[in-house]
Recover the amino acids of this structure.
């Protein structure tokens, strides 16, 4: 178990603050890696995250005043008496997403893809906080909460983009947090906050379904032909990925005991850089293919996941893994990363 505070010199620091900092760093790393994987421009994406932090911080300050009021006056109603931890968790999870509406509209980004990324980050943050709370306070509900978020992340969120339609992870996450709140943390305000999160989850699913509920007029034979191409490409990419891993210079047998010359080391490092770059391109391509296959399975293939419009048939014939129309795909904010990959492929 960990102490509740740590002495560094003459100063006393709360261990929970250190746990929170580790959680925030992990949260930021997940946002960065997943947004990069999805092709979002990193600078603009973190402008959005920073705006979310400012917006959420101001509201948390105002709500802390509300907590102070409830502490002083002690309302008898279990709904009106707010527990501070529950209130701050609810505020962070729900209100942190508000600036996403503005940025997704401004940059023509998919709102549902962004909230899925945020949900993954929050699951890691809550996982770290739960584990730290268990190690400090020793309460079993914190360990159960940690294990539950770990299972959620491994078995659900890691399949984002190709097993679950975009936006669904956000709804699953909100319902999951609501269940943990009701089952493990029955504190002041949970009877109010849990139903609100479930309601937001249902509304999110409804809004997501509106983009895909219109019937897509693509011939079955046309979709069947493209599906075969996608399955074939997925197998080819898996073989290419395996070959790249097998030929990784850093994974070759006897490398640790090899006394190579400086020039050989430089060549090895260059080969490693090229291999990693190719692996990144292959993995990104695999995710895109799986997303298209999932769209076929769900019946939403041929609809732009950003604006909801029909994707041109000619575009699908040339690029069957397309999940966005040409207008949204050529948005400059996302094309920067795509252009970098194209340059890298040419140099390789």
């Amino acid at each position: 178990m960990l102490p509740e505070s740590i002495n560094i010199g003459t100063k006393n620091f709360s261990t929970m603050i250190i746990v929170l900092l580790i959680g925030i760093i992990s949260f930021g790393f997940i946002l960065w890696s997943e947004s990069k994987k999805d092709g979002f421009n990193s600078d603009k994406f973190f402008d959005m995250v920073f705006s979310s932090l400012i917006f959420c911080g101001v509201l948390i300050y105002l709500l802390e005043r509300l907590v102070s009021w409830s502490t002083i006056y002690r309302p008898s109603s279990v709904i009106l008496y707010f527990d501070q931890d529950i209130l701050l968790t609810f505020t962070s999870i729900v209100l942190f997403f508000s600036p996403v509406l503005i940025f997704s509209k401004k940059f023509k980004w998919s709102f549902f893809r962004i909230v899925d990324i945020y949900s993954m980050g929050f699951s890691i943050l809550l996982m770290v906080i739960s584990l730290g709370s268990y190690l400090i306070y020793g309460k079993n509900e914190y360990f159960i909460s940690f294990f539950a978020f770990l299972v959620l992340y491994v078995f659900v969120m890691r399949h984002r983009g190709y097993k679950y339609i975009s936006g669904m992870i956000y709804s699953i996450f909100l319902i999951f947090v609501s269940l943990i709140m009701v089952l493990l943390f029955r504190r002041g305000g949970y009877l109010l906050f849990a139903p609100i999160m479930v309601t937001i989850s249902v509304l999110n699913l409804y809004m997501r379904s509106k983009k895909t509920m219109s019937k897509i007029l693509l011939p079955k034979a046309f979709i069947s032909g493209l599906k075969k191409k996608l399955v074939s490409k997925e197998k080819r990419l898996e073989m290419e990925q395996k070959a790249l891993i097998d030929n990784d210079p850093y994974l070759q047998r006897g490398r640790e005991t090899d006394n190579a010359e400086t020039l050989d080391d430089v060549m090895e490092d260059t080969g490693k850089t090229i291999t990693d770059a190719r692996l990144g391109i292959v993995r990104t391509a695999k995710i895109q293919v799986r997303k298209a296959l999932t769209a076929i399975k769900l019946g939403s293939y041929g609809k732009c996941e950003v604006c909801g419009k029909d994707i041109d048939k000619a575009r699908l014939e040339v690029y069957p893994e397309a999940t966005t129309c040409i207008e949204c795909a050529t948005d400059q904010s996302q094309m920067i990363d795509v252009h970098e990959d194209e340059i890298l492929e040419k140099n390789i």
Observations:
- Confidence is low (pLDDT under 50) at residues 332-348.
- The longest helix spans residues 262-298.
- Residues 5-210 form one domain.
